[in-house]
Amino acid sequence: MKIILNQDVVNLGEEGDVCVVKDGYARNYLLPTGAAVIYNKANAALFASRAEAIEKRKAEKRAEAASLKEKLDAVSIEIVVPAGESGKLFGSVTSLMVQEALNKLGFEIERKKIEVATHAIKMTGNYTVTVHLYENESSQIKLSVVSEAELKERARKEAEERKAAEKAAKEAEEKAAAEAAAAAEAAQEEAVVEETVSDSEVKEEE
Asked: Three-state SS across the chain?
């Protein structure tokens, strides 16, 4: 069936595009949801009259996509999952999990636009996830998949490092206080010596 898209449809086309799709897809989804209209002379003429407005919206979407790409390219997300000692996950990391992680960072991305390597990640490690934006624009997001055991071990090490740092800081503080006390005591002793010397000199003059 030949249709005209009334809005952007992922993996199909953009608003105003003329496409040929399967009848079932058109009747069961595109037409009932208003995503498209049947191609005929009347609808073609209607979209031709709206061409300028459609192009203006496309330009706005391109600018938004470029801005979003810049932000997403700087994003690194971490997903914590149960995994075995070998790093094999008890399950997999999917586009839905990536979508939820992005939502927590304030990015509302359609799940259809998120492309996870090999469709599902099944091992811990570092990956790159592609987010399709508008037209040919896309962003590469850094993804770190960490096991719950790794996270606990990391937390343990961080706690130990924090404790060691606090201990070192306390020891340094105590050392500085001891040195200051020693310096004050030495200064006091020196003052006493000077005072004794002065008294002796006065007596000699008399």
From this structure: CEEEECCCECCCECCCCEEECCHHHHHHHHCCCCCEEECCHHHHHHHHHCHHHHHHHHHHHHHHHHHHHHHHCCCEEEEEECECCCCEEEEEECHHHHHHHHHHCCCCCCHHHEECCCCCEEECEEEEEEEECCCCCEEEEEEEEEEHHHHHHHHHHHHHHHHHHHHHHHHHHHHHHHHHHHHHHHHHHHHHHHHHHHHHHHHHHC
**Architecture of the structural domain at 2-49:** 3-Layer(aba) Sandwich (3.40)
- Span 156-171, pLDDT tens digits: 677 667 777 888 888 8
Asked if domains 2-49 and 71-151 share a fold, the reply is: no
- The domain defined by 71-151 folds into Ribosomal Protein L9; domain 2 (3.10.430)
181: pLDDT strictly greater than 70? yes
Written as six digits, the tokens of 190 are: 């020196």
List the structure tokens of 79: 């997903």
pTM of the shown model: 0.60
| Domain regions of the chain by residue span | 2-49, 71-151
